[in-house]
Design a protein that fits this description.
The structure is a homodimer of 217-residue chains. By secondary structure, chain A is α/β, with parallel strands linked by helices. Chain A has eight helices and seven strands. Chain A is globular.
């Protein structure tokens, strides 16, 4: 269907133009933005909540929550006193730059150093969409199994950092960390991997310390 | 972007036309097809493998495996002696009817009563695509959390049956089964819910018995 191509190109370039505007706005405010991508239920919100706690008094965090529907996650973040805006995509399978642009207009940017943008739970569609973020993080979780990099390679290729969450469940599962790491490194040799448990708090500090560096606190 | 609409409509109707052909082909062979949808790592392949085992000698199963890349799942199914075809979508976020049509041409249909079509791991994009299946199943898993129906409502609305997998992990997680069931029933009052653990085998029989009925063995 060759008639489809020009339309797709037009949409992508419109998105990229607004992503560029978002990045300029964030840069002007000295904000580092982190696009958090994962399967549904990998623990994106838990990672964000634990990180807010770990960085308290060191970095001022803001959050954009992306979901098809509901404001469950935004309510959890708001309870911590962190500025948060919920985007409901209404069925859309990923966030796009215009959605983030409208959320940025509703956040107190002067009071934020580090902005988490929690994408829709999806290991495929968010891969190709620039939101204007500085860092792309993929959160995996032990119960999902060690074969996720093999099955969903694209998102692992574009990531700047990896979190492996729910390590506390490892004793009850057949997760082979060596297969996971080998598959991940075949796709992406450079991005750091942070293994953690949001339940116990184990491993959060190393991740928070890494965020302090690019966020320039 | 109104120019986009006619293109999308054209793609959808082409898909639906081929889905209809797939369904006629399957009906002519007396095959019941089950579209298995879930998040990445919910246990779609494990459910299929356990079901093959449970139905052995009662129903002849065939499998179409959908993944972005790799043939990890197809190899696991092939080890059981079950006819299987792997579709690699090459980055595509869901299966479509033409892909299933080409897979059907490579399966020994006369030797199959029940066909599992394992979709790409994704709780959003597979929702609107008819593959020619007779039954849509959504597999959730306990580690994903009880809020998935609230956050990804569309796919729970269209399902004909639900599996809740990895119940063996419940003691180690804060999964609230009551919230899950209430949210699910608000979206879909009719479709049966089968709670199971592919690790222990608990709950597989009730699911397998239910499949025996529509598959008409």
């Amino acid at each position: 269907m060759p008639t489809e191509v020009p339309v797709v190109e037009k949409i992508l370039s419109a998105n990229d133009r607004i992503a560029l505007e978002n990045r300029r706005l964030l840069d002007g405010q000295g904000i580092v933005a982190v696009n958090v991508m994962a399967s549904p239920g990998a623990g994106k919100t838990s990672v964000i909540l634990r990180t807010i706690e770990a960085l308290r008094g060191r970095l001022r965090v803001g959050v954009i929550e992306g979901d098809l529907a509901s404001r469950v996650d935004a309510d959890k973040v708001a309870e911590t006193g962190t500025p948060v805006v919920q985007i409901n995509t209404g069925g859309g399978c990923h966030l796009d730059a215009p959605q983030v642009q409208s959320a940025l207009a509703r956040l107190p940017l002067a009071e934020i150093d580090l902005l988490f943008i929690e994408n829709v739970g999806n290991l495929v569609c968010p891969t190709g969409w620039d939101l204007g973020e500085h860092v792309k993080v993929v959160v995996s979780s032990v119960p999902e199994g060690h074969d996720k990099p093999i099955k969903y390679p694209g998102i692992f290729v574009v990531a700047d950092a990896f979190v492996l969450n729910k390590t506390d469940l490892a004793p009850y599962l057949d997760f082979d960390a060596e297969i996971f790491r080998t598959a991940l490194r075949a796709l992406n040799a450079e991005a750091p991997l942070f293994e953690m448990s949001c339940k116990t708090g184990q491993g959060i500090e190393a991740w928070a310390d890494w965020l302090l560096a690019p966020a320039g606190a």
